[in-house]
Design goal:
Elements (H helix, E strand, L loop, with lengths): L17 H16 L12 E3 L3 H19 L3 E3 L2 H10 L3 H18 L10 H7 L3 H8 L16 H15 L7 E5 L5 H10 L2 E6 L2 H10 L5 E5 L9 E7 L10 H11 E14 L8 H6 L9 H8 L4 E7 L2 H21 L5 H19 L3 E9 L20
Length: 397
C-alpha cells in the first residue's frame, strides 16, 4: 500500500519546485488560522497527496478545492468540521474575493434562470437517479431541511418540518394547495393524507414527476412538469420548499407576482429557502458547475425587495443549524447504501457527493448560510394573529 486513495494518480515530481513554495506556504498559513494542519492528526486536518493542491486552491478557491478532492489530491476524515473551521475563520474572503466579484458580474448581466434555462437544474441535478435520492432522503423524500425538535431520527424530523409548514399555513381539509417545486411529491402526499388537502405540484424534473405521480397515484394530487411562471388557477394556500434557490435575483419580482396572482385574497404563502448573509448576484463556482447549475442564494434584502408591495410578511423563522444535522444524516444514508449504489455511480461521483453534502453541513453549522421559513399573506392579516409553532419535544433544534 502506498497510502494514496483509490483512483489517485500521483504527479511525476515528488519535490516541491521553488516557484510552488509560495502557494504551499500561503495555504498552510491560512489553514493554520482555522486550526487546521496539513497532514495533522485531528479528524478535521487534511492529508495532501499531491503538491499541485496548493496552487490549485490558491488560484481557484472552492472550485479548486472541490475538484482536487474529486481528483483524490487530498482527504479529510471530518470534512464538515473542516469547512466549519474554514468558514468561521472567514478564510474564503482571503482567497476567493476577486473570483466572486468576477462571477457576480456574469450574474448581473445574464438572467441565468430565465424560462429557457429553467429545466437545466432538473435535468442535471434532480434527474441524477431516483435510486440515489431514495437511499439518501428517507421515507418522506424531503430534499430540504428537517426540523430536529424532540427527535434524532431523520424521518421524524422531516415530519416535524412538514407539520410546521402546514400548521403555519393553517391548512384545513378541502383546501386546494399549490406546491411550487414539489420534488418527488412527499410534501404533497403528506398534505393530502394527513390534512385532507387537494394538491397541485409543479417540478422541472422529469424523473421527479414520474416518482411523484407514482407515490400519489391514489390521492387528490396532480403533478405537473411545468415552470412556475406558466401556472394558472386560484389556490387557498401556496408553499415552496427548497425551490427558491433556483429562481435568481432577476426573477424574484416575477416569482412573487406569480404567487400573488395565484393566491386567493385571504390566502397564505410559505417560503422555505436557504438564505445568504450577503446580497449578491452569483453562486459558488464549484456548486454551480457540479451540483446546482444557474442557482444562487437569496439574501434577506432580495426577498423583501422582491415581495414588497406584492405580499405582506407575517413571520420570519430561522433555523439554519438544523440543516447541518440534515446534511450529515443524508451523508450517513449515502455511506450506508453505497455498496448497492456503487454499481451505478463511480468513485469520482461518490467523492463529489461527499464534498457537496459535508461542505454544506459545515457551512450551515458556521451560520455562513441560513435556512428561513417566511410566511406571507396576500393583503395582510387583520386582527390578532398568532403564528402556530408546534412543540415536537422538550429539546430545541
Amino acid at each position: 500500500m502506498n497510502g494514496f486513495p483509490v483512483g489517485y494518480v500521483p504527479s511525476q515530481s515528488t519535490t516541491t519546485p521553488m516557484h510552488e513554495a509560495f502557494f504551499e506556504t500561503r495555504i498552510k498559513n491560512l489553514l493554520s488560522e482555522a486550526g487546521v494542519t496539513v497532514n495533522g492528526t485531528n479528524p478535521w486536518d487534511i492529508r495532501v497527496h499531491d503538491p499541485r493542491f496548493y496552487r490549485r486552491v490558491f488560484l481557484e478557491s472552492n472550485l479548486g478545492l472541490g475538484e482536487s478532492y474529486m481528483d483524490c489530491w487530498w482527504n479529510c476524515d471530518a470534512m464538515d468540521e473542516l469547512f466549519y473551521r474554514i468558514l468561521q475563520a472567514k478564510l474564503e474572503d482571503r482567497v476567493s474575493g476577486h473570483l466572486r466579484k468576477l462571477n457576480g458580474v456574469l450574474g448581473m448581466i445574464v438572467n441565468l434562470q430565465k424560462p429557457s434555462r429553467s429545466f437545466a437544474v432538473g435535468e442535471t441535478h434532480y434527474n441524477i437517479g431516483n435510486d440515489l435520492y431514495r437511499a439518501m432522503l428517507g421515507k418522506h423524500m424531503q430534499y430540504s431541511c428537517a426540523f430536529w425538535q424532540g427527535t434524532e431520527e431523520l424521518d421524524a424530523a422531516q415530519e416535524n418540518k412538514l407539520n410546521l409548514v402546514f400548521s403555519k399555513l393553517g391548512l384545513e381539509a378541502g383546501m386546494h394547495i399549490l406546491d411550487i417545486g414539489c420534488g418527488w411529491g412527499g410534501a404533497a402526499k403528506y398534505a393530502a393524507e394527513r390534512y385532507g388537502a387537494k394538491v397541485t405540484g409543479v417540478t422541472v424534473s422529469s424523473q421527479q414527476a414520474v416518482l411523484a405521480r407514482e407515490i400519489n397515484r391514489d390521492l387528490p394530487v396532480t403533478i405537473l412538469l411545468r415552470d412556475y411562471r406558466d401556472m394558472t388557477g386560484s389556490f387557498d394556500r401556496i408553499y415552496s420548499i427548497g425551490m427558491f434557490e433556483h429562481v435568481g435575483h432577476k426573477n424574484y419580482r416575477t416569482f412573487f407576482s406569480v404567487v400573488r396572482n395565484l393566491l386567493r385574497p385571504d390566502g397564505l404563502f410559505l417560503l422555505h429557502t436557504i438564505g445568504s448573509n450577503r446580497t449578491g448576484t452569483n453562486t459558488d463556482r464549484w456548486t454551480s458547475r457540479y451540483i446546482f447549475p444557474n442557482s444562487m442564494l437569496p439574501s434577506a434584502q432580495h426577498i423583501t425587495r422582491g415581495s414588497e408591495g406584492l405580499m405582506v410578511p407575517e413571520d420570519w423563522h430561522s433555523f439554519g443549524h438544523s440543516y447541518s444535522k440534515t446534511l450529515t444524516a443524508w451523508h450517513r444514508n449515502i455511506e450506508r447504501h453505497w455498496p448497492e449504489l456503487r454499481s451505478s455511480y463511480d468513485e469520482r461521483f461518490h467523492r463529489m457527493w461527499t464534498y457537496y453534502l459535508l461542505s454544506a453541513a459545515g457551512s450551515f453549522r458556521s451560520r455562513h448560510v441560513q435556512l428561513w421559513q417566511i410566511l406571507f399573506s396576500r393583503n395582510g392579516i387583520t386582527g390578532n394573529f398568532h403564528v402556530p409553532r408546534p412543540v415536537f419535544g422538550e429539546t430545541t433544534p
